[in-house]
Amino acid sequence: MAAWAEKLAGLRGVLLDISGVLYDGGEGGGTAIPGSVDAVARLKRSGLRVRFCTNESQKTRGAQVQLMRQLGFDVSEEEVTAPAPAACQLLREQGLRPHLLVHEGIRSEFDGIDTSSPNCVVLGDAAEAFSFHNMNMAFRVLMELPKPKLIALGTGRYYKETSGLMLDVGAYVKALEYACGIQAHVVGKPSPEFFKLALRELGVEAHQAIMIGDDIVGDVGGAQRCGMRALQVRTGKFRPSDEQHPEVTADGHVDNLAEAVDLLLKHATL
Amino acid sequence: MAAWAEKLAGLRGVLLDISGVLYDGGEGGGTAIPGSVDAVARLKRSGLRVRFCTNESQKTRGAQVQLMRQLGFDVSEEEVTAPAPAACQLLREQGLRPHLLVHEGIRSEFDGIDTSSPNCVVLGDAAEAFSFHNMNMAFRVLMELPKPKLIALGTGRYYKETSGLMLDVGAYVKALEYACGIQAHVVGKPSPEFFKLALRELGVEAHQAIMIGDDIVGDVGGAQRCGMRALQVRTGKFRPSDEQHPEVTADGHVDNLAEAVDLLLKHATL
Question: From residue A148, how far is each of A121, A130, A194, A233, B207 by CA, in Å?
């Protein structure tokens, strides 16, 4: 792989995806990916700015951080950009009252949001709550609106738990988009708005930042479309075919976060 | 509405959608739409050929016909073109072994089909069986195949039961298509193959046939793309906005099947 020094020139900040990069989810919370706890610590000591940018919509930001800390990561809630808080901001700005089809674990993020007489639907990674009944309820709310508005907490296709691949929110977004003949408003990766929010919070420009993720489309493609560089790790939902993806070419592939950080610390001009 | 006689010239056969045209589904089976039992009887006496063309994938053809007969319709199993028997034919021809995500009520249509070591997924209108767990099972089968093959029993967006609108198989097809990055092979309306099968069974050419349905895209648009004429009834899943649909313009709108048959009997040159 030629010219890492060139590829990593001028970097000032790093956005880290969480699930599949730092740890693999599963029963009992999850398991840190070998080397990643230390990699985050080394990155934070390096002088590069670091921020976590996740599409997690099963856990509140607080619960997410608590789990990460239990797994040994040095992280605080203020360092995480996540879709639910971003969606709440949007709902408030636009005076929207959501019907929520979200995971029980994230419901409390919407405390204080008016959910009476809903005039939109918010769809998160609801997992078991993606029942036929609940999908029909969300669908009917949309169909009764003169202009159906669907807000999606991400467009993920699937994720990997220790028990196997699981359908992510994006699949269910497509189901409702098709049934209603509409397009969802996406809050989360790969929405440019969301990456821009993360960059503002990181405090660097797009051309000074690199995204490290396991999702070739959501992380790598999304970040690149915003003018960032992006590496894909070969952990989490990575599949070998991603390295020949028809639409997205990562700026580099690394086996895991530890290798990514080795490269950043070696080649980035800090 | 000008020139019904012109619009209906040269007709020799009629394809009738079932649900939403003949009856509305719901608890206890369903309710005949007023005038439709008599309309079918009059049509059959008229000299026009008549066939039923349905995307029903919750009931076997036998159970469907039994329900229709209970509601008073003159119909036999041989008069119905339905996706599950057509899919079984395809599975046999192509040596495919399906993982079935279908409604319990239609499972017996697949008796005699080898379902060991599945090399494709067949998705029907599984209704309550569209759980997160079952969708993940189907998804994992697809993702383990070198070339994932998804066979969809129709592409319906939604249907109406007495309890309200329900998501149809098409929505769940879109979810799996998106998650896997594939396109389903559709058996059922609006697939041209399926309309052609119905026309062969009806025994008339496309230009001699008219489709009567409640679905502006699946029935009307699909039939027209095959060279048939098509009327939309204002029953079932009809919505007023269908009359200004951006892509499909029906050859005519009628309040219900009874009105359609009145027009056919008055204007078609028999």
Answer: 8, 20, 22, 37, 38
